[in-house]
Structure formats: C-alpha cells, structure tokens
Write a structure and sequence with these properties.
Elements (H helix, E strand, L loop, with lengths): L2 H12 L4 H8 L3 H15 L4 E4 L2 E5 L1 H27 L5 E7 L1 H18 L3 E7 L2 H9 L5 E5 L8 E9 L1 E6 L12 H5 L3 E4 L9 H7 L6 E5 L2 H9 L4 E5 L11 E5 L7 E8 L6 H10 L5 H8 L4 H7 L12
Parallel strand pairs: 3-4, 3-5, 8-9, 8-10
Antiparallel strand pairs: 1-2, 5-12, 6-12, 7-10, 7-11
Length: about 325
Amino acid sequence: MKLQQLRYLVAVHENGLNITAAARQLHTSQPGVSRQLKMLEEELGFRLFEREGRALTRTTSGGEEIIARAVNILREMHNIRRTSQELRKADGGTLSIGTTHTQARYVLPPVIRAFRSQYPKVRLHLHQGTSEQIAELVARDRVDFAIATGSDELFPHLVRLPVYRWHRTVVVPRGHPLAAAGKLSLKKIAEHPIVTYVFSFSGRSSLPALFEAAGLSLDVALTARDADVIKTYVRIGLGVGIVASVAIDRSNDSDLAVLDARHLFEGHTTWVGFRRGALLRAYMYDFVELLAPHLARKLVRDAEHSQTQDDIDRVLANLSVPTRDAT
C-alpha cells in the first residue's frame, strides 16, 4: 500500500467519485488514477467502489471506512511535514489564506498589518477567488484558513467559526431618485436596473426569488464578483448597486449615496475555517483572534477538538458575533 494510492482514493471521494476531476486535481491522468485504485482494491481484497462500466456509482461500506482512515493518515502526514519544517524555523513559518475579494480588500488589511507587526518572520500567502476556487484550494491543502460567506455545502470538512455578520446595502450616485425616496422597498428598487454580485443569484439568498415572491420582476443590468467593479458601473449610471455593507468605504465612496436595506434582505455571516485535525501553530491562533477578537484561543481549541458539527455548535452556543457595517 502506497501513500500515493491513498491520495488518489481521497481525491476521488472528495470529487464525488469523478475520476476525471480527481485526476485534474492531482495533476495526473485518469487511467493512472483508475489503475492505482484497482491495485489498492486487489491488495485489500475487497471493492472500495461499485461500478457501472468505467464509472464509479457508489462507495461500499468497506470503502467508507478505508477512506475515513486514509483522510486521517494523509492529514497526519501533512502535519508531520509541517511540524518538521516549522521546528527548523522556530522564529518563523508560513500562513496561507484563501478568501474573496471583499475580505481581502476591505476586512483583512488592518488584520494583516497587525499580524505582520507581531510576526515579521512569518511568510503570508493570500489567495483570492470565488467560493468554489477557495474550496478547491482547501481540497488541495493549499491554504491554512479559508475566509468566506455561506457556501456551507462546499466546505463540509472544515471547522467554521463566525467572524462577523453583515447585510446587503444599496448604493446609487448622489442625485439618483432613490437617494431621496425615503425608506427603501423592493418595489422602489425594482423600478431601476440592478448591478450586483453573481453569487447573489443562487441558493437561499437568491435576489430574483426574493423579488418574485413579492410579485416583482428584476431587471439585472450587470453582475460581477468584485464590489469595486459593481460600484464603478453604478457610478457610470448603469443601475442601482446591491453590495455587502462591509464593501463600502465612506471616505473613498463619498460620491455615492449609501441606502440602508437591512429590513429588505436577509443577513449573512462571514466565517473563518480550517480542516479538522489540522496543526495550528501559536501565530495562527493569534491571527484568528486579530481577525475576530471574540474567537479567543480556548474557544478555537475547543472547536478544533470537536468531532461533529453538533459539537462545534455547542461550543459556539453562547458566542456573541458582531455585526460589521460600512467603514
């Protein structure tokens, strides 16, 4: 039995039994993955997967147990390598973060500045992307922390801790009719073209579904993943912007009217997450506390050692999570 075979096995599992996707993640060939899986099954003496032709259809009960053990083995191998590297550099190390543009642009700068001042020899790596891209980085063990909002289904293996809560806000150029229209309503917003995030149009936070439930149609002029891009197109008159409240900078966005929409749109929670069983060094706990002062080291450790999401929920039961508004 080889570690490579266990890596292939776990990758196939994490990619929904899609060998092609697993091979792409591992930067190898599909036949190579299939061959190693069959060799592993022959050595073990039982099937790990049920098949229809060349396609894997389900994981056998024996396969589920082997996969669970393989995940733990690979995680400990990663921790051993990391411990070796870090012990050779006791005064330094690395910290890799996968996050979205909004967090990288509006939330993390003061946190990273403070962290860098405290740990000048720790090398920081900041990876920006969509939730799907961050999930891929997590799957490939490329990041220590993921910082994102929602998308729970993409991160089932992470310990996720709430950082702050936020709401959508509406932005328009000063002089726009909505700026003087009083308290916002969905009807008032629907009278204008909309510029907003791509992710707002899926799942339970779907904007079209919200407006449809109110009997209103939504004229979407443009969608983007970057709040700064959205505000740029609002400025040129393309439509009414709907962005995260944290993506408003009062000093730099003084040319825009920022309209309260908390009564219209559901709130969201941004979280920081890491793999269960991951090795967290002292400076990593300090980074989390700089990001979210309510996430003290003891609480993070209690969550880290939890076996299930229910256990984590019990740890967080009495936690007070702050709401973050425009800066």
